[in-house]
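User: Please fill in residues for this 271-position structure.
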């Protein structure tokens, strides 16, 4: 039986097949060439050049400040590293909310200048016209519902979304609207597991969760969080696979010490 390891190149079509046969989709964020090369070699299905780059790469408190030019720069580094993964790039705040023409122009810049494979944008009913317009140019679109960090100042907190019936019903209808508009997949962020399960069962397209429980079609995490590079963020849904902050700090402390003691470079480490 063939598995994900046999797939040479992930496409939106391959992801759809994975959903049909119940194979879970793996997705991680990536923002630079070297990390993307490792993740691609590890056979991650989707690499998301997330606007979380605003936080983990640029040190901003929110995702709002990152620009389209910065996203394109991150995305083109990732694209150069990748042989197998599908690379999806976030449309940053302010690059698509104005109107569908602005959304299309921003998506075209990402596809043309970074040579990305698809774009992602946040929102439901409000962005459906933009989703349709971007699709007219042949650009695959991934949706994003639930906790949508670009709206943090509207929400006021990073708490779990759609716990109440009204918001849950709206999320279910937005998910269907995005599917009908032609999105190839949807990310659900930080919503009750039971609701995420219902969305996944209602939709034919893959539903990828982050803090949305196990009963969806795939999982995504921010790579800096799961690798323990960023220790400031520890939500319940996060599993840390490494503690790179401490490991890197120990290595750098050792290097500093070696330099100070004139232990580095030694005889073999010179010409
Ligand atoms: O920008 C990002 O990292 C994301 C994920 C949280 C899905 O959108």
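Assistant: Residues filled in for all 271 positions:
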């Amino acid at each position: 039986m063939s598995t994900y390891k046999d797939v040479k190149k992930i496409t939106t079509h391959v992801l759809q097949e994975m959903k049909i046969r119940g194979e879970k989709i793996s997705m991680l964020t990536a923002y630079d060439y070297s990390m993307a090369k490792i993740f691609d070699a590890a056979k991650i299905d989707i690499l998301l050049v997330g606007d979380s780059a605003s936080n983990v790469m640029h040190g901003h408190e929110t995702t709002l400040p990152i620009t389209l030019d910065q996203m394109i720069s991150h995305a083109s580094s990732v694209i150069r590293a990748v042989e197998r993964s599908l690379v999806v790039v976030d449309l940053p705040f302010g690059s698509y909310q104005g109107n569908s023409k602005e959304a299309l122009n921003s998506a075209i810049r990402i596809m043309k200048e970074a040579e990305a494979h698809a774009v992602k944008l946040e929102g439901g009913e409000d962005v459906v016209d933009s989703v349709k317009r971007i699709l007219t140019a042949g650009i695959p679109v991934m949706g994003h519902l639930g906790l949508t960090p670009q709206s943090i100042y509207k929400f006021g907190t990073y708490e779990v979304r759609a716990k109440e019936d009204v918001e849950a019903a709206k999320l279910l209808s937005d998910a269907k609207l995005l599917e009908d508009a032609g999105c190839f997949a949807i990310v659900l962020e930080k919503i009750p597991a039971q609701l995420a399960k219902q969305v996944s069962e209602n939709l034919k397209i893959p539903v990828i969760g982050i803090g949305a429980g196990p009963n969806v079609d795939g999982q995504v995490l921010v790579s800096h969080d799961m690798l323990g590079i960023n220790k400031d963020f520890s939500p319940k849904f996060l599993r840390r696979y490494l503690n790179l902050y401490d490991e890197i700090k120990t290595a750098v402390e050792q290097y500093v010490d070696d330099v100070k003691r004139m232990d580095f470079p030694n005889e073999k480490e010179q010409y």
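For context: The two ends are 53 Å apart (CA to CA).
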